[in-house]
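Team,

Forwarding the record for the chain on the shared tracking sheet. I've put the sequence and predicted structure together so nobody has to dig through attachments.
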Amino acid sequence: MNADQLKDEQLPEIGEACRDWRQGDVFCDGKTFVFDHGWSPQPVGAAYGAVIISQSCDASLPGRERIQIAPVVRLEDEDDLREALSGRRTQYLALPRIGQEFFADLDGITTVMKTALLSYERAPGVETDQEIREFAFSLARRFGRFAYPDEVVECFKPLTEALRSKARKENSPMGKVLADVHSFRVECGDWSTEPYALTLIVILEPARVTSDLDDIGDCPEDLARLGNKATGERIGAYAAYLNRDGLSQTERYFGWQLLADAWARRCEETATARGLTGIVSSVTAQLTSTDEFPMSQYLSTESLDLDYLSDSRKAPQ
């Protein structure tokens, strides 16, 4: 029997077995490999099995003989676990159905024949609509990141490193503030022409600030006085201000707007300090929320995925 005949003989068996396979399914004893410097395959992440990374349509189609899988890992470090669960580590995709501490490790993706998985027990790693959407979103985010120019990376790096450090301290003023931030995006009118005039877009979770600007009065005096501080001090002061109890919608709006402005200002100062103003001419801020940010602008902006620079933000709810 030649190879083509063997393939035809196996196809019905493969088709029947894989019709229910879905992205996020875990094969409890599945194996993944990476090639070493001598092109010899080395097993990785074998302890907890492997998870399907391919789209569900590809995983379940009988005619698709190969499939992409990734090792399942267990994160035991509390900081790593917290960041992965919040979506700030795009290397890891949560698998809540097998345990809160288990994740797909996208650094070890392997392509295998589907027949290699037939003898292994399969269980869903994600099951609810929300879990399935978050898994797919996180996977797309990992491989769809925009390649920022090096000079832009340099401008944003001090800010993103600071945010990463503060995000780990969830009970700190800045940690609590960052819990209300859904994501960051960057807008540039023309990436092909220098210098770049950038807009740092801070996208909050729904209902964190009012969207009716007609109801917003003047900036409170005590908040305006904080503008006399150095940028780093202002950022900390605005975070502390936003943690006050009983803030009015005006106080909350201006607190957030001024914090976003200070974040952008910090990036501008970095560009100046590092002699990059010929590449990055300005960085301004825009404050919005997930229920107000228009699709048209989403399509014309790039995610400031903090894992690309230092960390990442959580997937949309």
